[in-house]
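I have a small job for you when you get a moment. Would you make up a two-line entry for one protein for me to read? No commentary is needed, just the two lines. Write everything out right here, beneath this request.
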Amino acid sequence: MHKLSIIIPAYNAEPYIEHLIQRLKPQIRNEIEVLVVDDGSKFPYLPPYKWVRVIRQENKGLAGARNTGIENTDGEYIHFIDADDLVPENYADYILKLIEEEEPDFIELSWKSFDEKGGVRFDYKIPKNGTLPNPSACTRIYKRSFLGKLRFNEKKDTAEDEDLYRRMDFSKGKKAVATEYM
């Protein structure tokens, strides 16, 4: 069993997924598994590394790809990272240390969003006792036992992560906050 499962839904992500994989490459260790769920891409992602597993499926949409990821990983914690997202160079060390020290049910992540020219579009730096204002699946890491049997609603074609967020009872979970940008 892994400590952290990284699930990357990918649909025609060939132009940018490799950038994410290159960011993860030096950070991979035995406690981490990486699963790309290729959701019916025209040109499937062919990973150049053995540590990247790929499941190919007919297109089910983002919710279906994330659910496939949950069912095909074994990590104690689950992080959904979109194929066009990036992580910092200290992502693995930071997250694994946070898990070890705080043993949370979920982790809220500080994050930034950039525009096409590299300028910051959104900036969510969460203070230690703060809370995350958005329900994106990529801005939280969930303990598998806290997620339980909850899954993304595959009938929704938008805001499937907001739907999952609304069905979770965060008041019953122990929260940790990543105050550094993840």
